[in-house]
Amino acid sequence: MNMAAAATAKPAGTRASAGRPEKLRLGDVLVQQRLISLEQLQQTLELQQQTGKKVGRLLIESGVITEESLADALARQLRVPFINLKTYPFRGDVVKLLQESVARRFRALVLEDKGDTLLVAMADPLDLFAYDEITRLLKRNISIAAVPESQLALACDRLYRRTEEISGLARALEKDLGDA
Question: pLDDT tens-digit profile of 147-164?
Fold first, then answer.
């Protein structure tokens, strides 16, 4: 789709019946929502060709948009929740449904168990491969929420490190008790 067509195209991002996001181009979404201009998108796409970085990362690094506005724009376009992880009441048992290595690889955290569906926060809710892999690994239907990437990274550090520290302390205590 060319840039002019992107500005006049029908709204993209309707949800597929299984909850899987459609393939969208981030630049088109941001232009549609008037968060960036066509000129800013074109400049960013040229820079992307030179650097190989993702469009969203380049727009954030250049100060055109913030991580929060990017995540919020994606949430609105995909009709999924935007969640502020700084104030989210995590449940450790639910978060641990996804192994740390997988959570970090796909930049995702399980937030809620809604019975037949798990709510998963994703830094890149347009990553269809990550969506499919997480669904396969969890063996459950998932619905997604958009979150700022830096918040997700900090939450992973906080939530998974705490478990490792506790496990290490438990092992040390077991060893001490065994020696006694």
Answer: 999 999 999 999 987 555
The runs of H, that is alpha helices, within 52-144 are 55-61, 67-78, 92-95, 100-106, 128-138
The Cα 158–Cα 162 span in angstroms is 6
Q: How far apart are alpha carbons 180 and 176 in whole angstroms?
A: 6
Cβ neighbors of 43 (< 8 A, separation 6 or more) are none
- Nearest-CA neighbor of 81 among 133, 129, 119? 119
Edge to edge, what strands does the sheet with 108-113 contain? 108-113, 117-122, 141-146
- How many other β-carbons are positioned within 10 Å of the β-carbon of residue 85? 21
Q: Cα–Cα distance between 95 and 112 in angstroms, integer?
A: 8
Instruction: List all residues 6 or more positions away from 173 whose beta carbon is below 8 Å from its beta carbon.
Output: none
Reported confidence tier of residue 19, pLDDT bands at 50, 70, 90: low
